[in-house]
Amino acid sequence: MRLLRETCETSRTTRSLGPVSDFAVIAGLSGAGRTQAGNALEDLGWFVIDNLPPSLVPKVGDLAQGPGSTTPKVALVVGATHDSAELMLAIAELRSTGATVRLVFLDATTDVLVRRYESSKRRHPQAHASLTQSIEEERQLLAAVRESADLIVDTTDRTIYDLKALMVDTFGGDLASEVMAITVMSFGYKHGLPNDVDMVIDCRFLPNPYWDEELRPLSGLDDQIVGFLSADPQTTPFLERLGSLLELLIPAYRREGKAYLTIAMGCTGGRHRSVAMSEAVAAAIRADGSAVRVAHRDIEK
């Protein structure tokens, strides 16, 4: 178990991991990217323990908050478990210490997980005769953990590089617990709705640049597409009213303690209208003084 032995050996001598200001608990479905998320945090300087049994979460938390620590951030990547209640209890016990604890749940569709397991030739920890049955059983077992997560990340359409970028954006800075991380994402309806979003805005009422042969090869990042959409009389009122709605909602979400807000802007293919509108919405959010990340899921499809 990566770094667990070093943790225990250190605790027996100097208990060098002392008061910790920030814990990240990485949980989720087997094959959804828990280890890759942990690797990204390790690259950011977090002390990472991979494949940790849920029963050891409170024990490691105690060790990490002993005297003499020089490690302010610890990530616990929880291994496969047959008992979600045990994991929930362990996280509650860790939070009861007063430390900041953020629970991240990694998810993916069953068919994608099947393909990942078949390509890796690894055995699923549920170990049923049917791989699909094993995945679905684990999904049911972890339903309560998913529901209580601070951040749900669907890795169905994400590469390991996309996942790393998300972890860097989310955990790379010294974010206080009350700061809400905002993401504006463009997507194409023909490629499917994104699963890990809070708001979905349909941009398909705007004229589609795809039908102009000169504009078709471009994307919503190009000035020609922005100009084409800006010329439509619906665009400015749409952005103004959406901006007014977000001016109301973003502070309200912050007051309620929401840690992450993802706004998805959709068009048919995810290359023109949704991209341009995502950039415009993100610019408006920045103008109001909030940091925001922009992601274009389907721009290259």
What can you tell me about this protein's structure?
By secondary structure, the protein is of the alpha/beta class. The protein folds into 2 domains: 4-177, P-loop containing nucleotide triphosphate hydrolases (Rossmann fold, 3-Layer(aba) Sandwich); 183-296, no CATH class. 41% of the residues lie in helices and 19% in strands. The protein has 11 helices and 9 strands. It has helices at residues 4-13, 34-43, 57-64, 84-95, 110-120, 131-141, 143-148, 160-171, 223-230, 235-255, 273-287, and strands at residues 22-28, 47-52, 73-78, 100-107, 151-154, 181-188, 199-202, 260-267, 292-296. The strands form 2 sheets. The protein has a 5-stranded parallel beta sheet, with helices on both faces. The protein has a 4-stranded parallel beta sheet with strand order 7-8-6-9, covered by helices on one side. Helix 3 (57-64) links the parallel strand 2 and strand 3. The radius of gyration is 21 Å and the shape is globular. The two termini are 39 Å apart. Mean pLDDT is 85; it is low at 1-18 and 174-178.
